[in-house]
Amino acid sequence: MNAPQASPLKILSLDVENVLRVRAVRITPKGNVLELTGRNRQGKSSVIDALWAALGGEKKIPADPVHDGAKIGNIVVDIGDATGLKYRVTRRIKKKDDGDWSTSLTIENEDGFRSDKPQQILNTLIGALSCDPLDFINKGPKEQFDLLKTFVSGVDFDAIADANEADFDARTVVNRDAKALRTRANAIVVDETAPTEQVDEAALVQELAEAATKNGLVGRFRAEQAARKANADGLDREAEANRARVKELEAEIQQLSQRIAVLNSQADGHEQSASDIRLEISSAGDEPPTVDTQELQARINAARDTNAKVAAAARARTEKERLAGEAAALEERSDALSKAIAARETEKQEAIARAEMPVPGLSFGDGTILLDGHPLAQASQAQKLSLAVAIAMKLQPRLRFLTTKHAALLDDESWAALVQLADQQDLLVIAETVNSNRPTAVVIEDGHVRGAAQQAAE
What would the DSSP string read from start to end of 72-128? Predict the structure, then answer.
């Protein structure tokens, strides 16, 4: 038997017998709101739990589901559409001797035809939030976010969040390193007054060496000249002495004529040598000048200072450019990461814009739901309630009913909003309250319905 594909289905009646705190309850909803009320621990919640045990599968059956003292619990739900098509869902729960339980499920149409896969049919009718729309309101932002993102197909929110987080962390490190490199680069001071070209210090040193050689030659020349002059002066003194001796020995000329001739001859020879030396000194002219090496050494020292400044400025520029280049590369990497994050966000927002959201103005923030651009937590109770119902209906378009065990928390205004939403959406809301005085409420006492009148909720 295939699930109906025509008009939406509604719950036409509910019979519960010996399930949880319910002894025997039969309810035929009138209107779009079925209010179950009464004192606590009388079976109101058990009616809702029994309905879900019948429709939601074994996972919805609570522990120890059979009423105390009974062996078998039965739940029968009649569902149908506006065309008169009807289906009966029957859940039977049997208590075992060991305290465990077994269950069976049947679904049949008005002709008595039973499906061999009843739960698969029911699963196509049951939505994820149908059990209680108020649960959605009370969920945390992340749980709300996780539920609503199922409306956006083709987008892996978790993968995008993980990738963005990884890129954000990487960008934080990159920006930190880039800032550190920029700081180091800016801290380097380049002497802009330093010459841009080095002085040829080797040429100056070579010049100094050549000057030293020249000065050495000049020194040796001076020493040789002084030695020659001293030798000439000695010869002059010796010649003068010889002449004096000649005068002294004039008396002995006769005796010593031969000696005088020899001495005169020697004196004449000495005179000639002295004359030659004087002539050599005279012909040499002025002595060569020396080179001022102190001035040359000062020039070398100045060249060394200049070259040190040139080298320091070049090193500073090179290091500054290196650090700035590395910082620029990191900044480019940071920009790429930012663009990747923005691209993912753009892709996500475009997918969200294409999605059919339950209500207008609904969107996704950073891990939270936004309504008209504001966090859902800031919305009014009526807005939240309307959103929760719309989401539930979006997730469950076929079997149009909702249940809530938290309706006692609604004030009169919120209750009226819930009734209005049920009428607008044409869905059955089964709501549990505590000791309600509304005349349409179905009072549950000791596992039974008190009275039989059930009228449409106002």
Answer: EEEEEEEEE-TTS-EEEEEEEEEE-TTS-EEEEEEEEETT--B-S-HHHHHHTT--T
Query: In this structure, what DSSP letter does residue 9 have?
Result: B
pLDDT in tens, 336-370: 999 999 998 888 888 888 888 888 888 888 778 88
Distance CA(13)–CA(367), nearest Å, equals 41
Q: Answer whether 0.70 is exceeded by the pTM.
A: no
Instruction: Please state, in angstroms and rounded to a whole number, the distance separating the CA atoms of residues 380 and 397.
Output: 25
Three-state secondary structure call for residue 399: strand
- Tokens read off for 219: 């020194």
Which runs of consecutive H residues, i.e. helices, occur in 249-292?
253-284
Q: Helix or strand or coil: residue 444? A: strand
For 396, other C-beta atoms within 10 Å of its C-beta total 20
Sheet holding 33-37, edge to edge: 101-109, 86-95, 72-80, 10-19, 22-27, 448-450, 442-445, 33-37, 428-432, 401-404
pLDDT for 168-216, tens place per residue? 999 999 999 999 988 998 998 888 887 878 878 888 788 888 888 888 8
Q: Bin 431: left if φ > 0, else alpha if -120 < ψ < 50, else beta.
A: beta
Residue 53 has pLDDT above 60, yes or no: yes
Say if residues 132 and 404 touch (Cβ distance below 8 Å): yes
Tokens of 261: 């001739």
What's the distance, CA 154 to chain centroid?
Answer: 23
- Those residues with Cβ within 8 angstroms of residue 140's Cβ, 6 or more apart along the chain or in another chain: none
What kind and span of H or E run contains 354?
helix 293-354
Residue 77: closest CA among 37, 113, 108, 46: 108
CA-based Rg of the chain, rounded to a whole angstrom?
59
Q: pLDDT > 70: what percent of the chain?
A: 87
Give CA–CA dist 362/381, Å, rounded.
16
Q: What gap in Å lies between CA 156 and CA 367, rounded to an integer?
A: 13
Which residues are registered as beta bridge partners of 428?
401
Question: What's the whole-number average pLDDT of the chain?
Answer: 84
3-state helix, strand, coil in the chain (%, to 5): 55, 15, 30
Cα 325 to the center of its chain, rounded Å: 23
Retrieve residue 424's tokens. 């607008």
pLDDT digits (tens, 9 = 90+) for 25-46: 999 999 999 999 999 999 999 9
E-strand ranges in 213-257 read: none
Q: Which two tokens stand for residue 83?
A: 């065309």
Q: Going along 347-397, which residue ranges are E strands?
A: 362-364, 369-371, 374-375
Task: Evaluate if residue 456 carries a pLDDT over 50.
Answer: no
